[in-house]
Design goal:
This protein is α+β, with helices and mostly antiparallel strands. The protein contains one helix and two strands. A two-stranded antiparallel ribbon has the order 1-2.
């Protein structure tokens, strides 16, 4: 598992927004190509 702090590193924020299609909600989890957003996932 990789932990990426979007507050500390702007490039990670860009990656998070790309993966979440612009949704600004954490955590964004990527597992086996599947993206889950927020606690409980969406």
């Amino acid at each position: 598992m990789d932990y990426r702090d979007v507050k500390e590193e702007p490039k990670y924020l860009e990656e998070m927004l790309r993966l979440s299609r612009g949704v600004r909600k954490v955590p964004v989890l990527v597992e086996g190509g599947q993206v889950s957003i927020g606690f409980g996932g969406t």
